[in-house]
Specification:
181 residues, mainly alpha, two-stranded antiparallel sheet, 2 strands
Length: 181
C-alpha cells in the first residue's frame, strides 16, 4: 500500500477501509459519467445526422438535467471513444479520459502499470498521463518534478518571476582575503 501517511493518526486497517470506500465512490462516479455520455449517444442515434445536432442535443439535454453542457460534452466524447465492451469498470473514468485519444488505448487498458507512489500495479491518473506523455499531476521522481515545473513555467516571464522567489535567501558573507577584499 502507499507509503505516504494517510491520514495522520489512522491505523493500517482504517487507512485500508478509507481507501476501499473512496475506490467504491470513484467507481460509482465513473459509472455515472459513462452513463451520461452513453445517454447522449443514445439520443443522437434517434436523430437525423448532418445538421449540427450534436452540439444542440448536448446543450438541450444538459439544460434539462441540470449540468453544464461542457461537462456533458466531455462525458459524451469519452464514452464515444470507449465502447462499453472495451471499458474497465475497475479503472476510473479519469484514466479512460486521459487514454481516450491514444490509438492503442484498448490494448493499454488491459495491463495495469506500476505506480511508484503506491508501489502497486494499477491504473492511476498519473500513470495514464505518463502514457499520454503529459507531466503527471503528482510527480514521483526527480524527472517528473522537473517536467511538472516546466509545464507550470510555460513562459520566460513566468520563469523570471518564479525563480528568484523560489531561491532561498542567504545572508551575504563577509569578503575573505582570497576575494581581494
Amino acid at each position: 500500500m502507499d507509503g505516504r501517511p494517510f491520514p495522520d493518526g489512522c491505523t493500517k486497517d482504517e487507512t485500508a477501509a478509507l481507501r476501499r470506500r473512496g475506490t467504491e465512490a470513484v467507481r460509482k462516479q465513473s459509472g455515472l459519467r459513462f452513463a451520461l455520455g452513453d445517454l447522449v449517444i443514445e439520443v443522437l442515434t434517434r436523430l437525423p445526422r448532418g445538421h449540427g445536432e450534436v452540439g444542440q442535443t448536448i446543450e438541450t439535454l444538459a439544460h434539462q438535467i441540470g449540468i453544464p453542457a461542457s461537462t456533458l460534452r466531455k462525458y459524451y466524447d469519452v464514452a464515444r471513444q470507449w465502447p462499453a465492451a472495451k471499458r474497465r469498470p475497475d479503472v476510473c473514468w479519469s484514466v479512460h479520459e486521459r487514454l481516450a485519444y491514444i490509438p492503442s488505448r484498448f490494448t493499454l487498458i488491459k495491463t495495469d502499470p506500476y505506480d511508484p507512489i503506491s508501489q502497486e500495479n494499477h491504473w492511476t491518473v498519473n500513470e495514464a498521463e505518463k502514457v499520454g506523455r503529459a507531466a503527471p499531476s503528482t510527480p514521483a521522481t526527480p524527472q517528473e518534478h522537473l517536467a511538472k515545473a516546466k509545464q507550470l513555467l510555460s513562459s520566460d516571464k513566468d520563469t523570471a518571476e518564479a525563480v528568484p522567489a523560489a531561491r532561498p535567501i542567504r545572508p551575504a558573507r563577509p569578503p575573505t582575503p582570497t576575494d581581494g577584499g
